[in-house]
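Checked the freezer inventory, then went back to the computational side. Two predictions to log before the end of the day. The first one is the construct we discussed on Monday; recording sequence and tokens without edits.
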Amino acid sequence: MPAKYGDLGKKANDLFNKGYEQGKYKVEVTSKSDGFEFTTKGHQDASGKISASHEMKHPCLLKTGSIMKTTFTPGKNALDIEAENSKLIKGLKLTAVGSFPIEGCPIPAFNKIKGAWSNDKLNVNFDSNLSSSVNIDAVFGAPVGNFGVKLGLNAKSLELANREIAFNMNKGSIDYTFRTALNKDYNVVFHNQVNDNTAIAVSSTYNSKGMSLALASKVKGACGSSNQFKIANNGVFALSHITPLRNGAELTISGEFNATNLQAGGHKLGAGLKFNL
């Protein structure tokens, strides 16, 4: 089965985007028990602003075969709710996304509906707010690689709001993905799992802002730890060390620096602590 469109090039994109906490301090606690999953997150950015959220995922109490996910964010006057069902229509996973006010008149609000369907050759996903927008993407698996297309439609004017095509190829240890919005632009990401301990990724982008090039790598260390870095042609250089602690905890320490002018300010440090209880 081909990957969903948003996951094309995921291995390379994860090397650039995951495992870094520079400019913020974060704590995350997850727990699972009897079909229930709880995730609590706390976050403080460089300005000192603190944000938090609590998420609960569980089977629907009405026994419809649905999975419910409820997210509470302090300061927000509503609960975010998602209801996911894979049994209503065979082979199709439907997710309804809405919110429930926690003050004033408790009338639920509907935000969008999402759908996902796949087989061994095709992976299709869509979402719509049933009033003004429809988004759809599809990936077709061929012997030479995966071909993908992503379209956004303005339901009122019936005009394309955005479009994008992609090609993904996986050969041995190499994963390659090309994307373009057909507007004199492209993005190429290249991932190579050199061996069991080392992975390297390269990203090249061209658009109206110009050309950019970046390199990232992740190397496994001792006792389950890992070290990773990324550097871009604008001089931004980031380092991160991830180490497991006792009882399922994980500590991440990161830093981001201006490699072209280390004497300047603006360098960022950060840390993340994750618990799996």
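The second is the one RB wanted added to the comparison set:
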Amino acid sequence: MNHDCAEIIEINEHVRVRIEYALDPLNPREEYDNVATMACWHRRYNLGDVQPSEDPGDFRIRLLEGAGVDTGCPHCAGSGRTDDGDCEACDGYGERPIDELREEWERLFYSLPLYLYDHSGITMSTGSFSCPWDSGQVGFIYVTKERAHQEWGTTLMQQRRDPDTGALLSGLVPVRPMTDEDYLQRLRNEVETYDQYLTGDVYGYVVEVGHTDEEGDFVVDEEGDSCWGIFGIDCARDDARCAGEAAAKRHEAELQERDYWAQRDVATEA
């Protein structure tokens, strides 16, 4: 199967890595485990995780009720009626307006708005776009603070780096207690991954081992490691370079071994 090449990373004269666009990437909201939920309202697209039939305000009220909040209007005990007729405080709905429940929402949930830009393709962000004609809010992403603390922990962890080379090392070390902004950033990260899916910013790589012919073209002798479903070109470049450098080390070791035995007139497998 042919993939469109995004770029090629030259490791050395014998090893390079082709970064290619993923032809049919998996939807991260359907195929991967996510902590938060994306609720979206759009006439033409089924976006995010859920597409509620009720309006955003009513949907938030249902979420608050599920979290144990009494959303009933205190003036009519949730009935929508008083002795004088429809309750004026809730317009007869029997529920407190969502604006009055905002403090309860912010106490129990982390959430961010979702904006969509629809022009020759779609892209999503937690920040508004500059074009008022082709963009607008389509929903919000949310998670209860209880679930966020359970899934993401309460201490910010960071991957270590080699002090000399700057290379990432295995293992995480604690940095500081998590803040509200840290949890909101996790929501942004989930939206960024989904946006990469929407915009086709998903890749794979193939390590190629070969030689340069007389015309100066690289001839592939064999394909090495490959990986697909990498979201974001920066991550694809990092993973591809790491795989390519590992392949170059293996190839160099093989050449040295062949040279060692060739000097002793011992035939090795080509």
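For RB: The first helix runs from residue 28 to 31. The chain has two domains: 1-25+224-270, 26-199. Let me know if you want it refolded.
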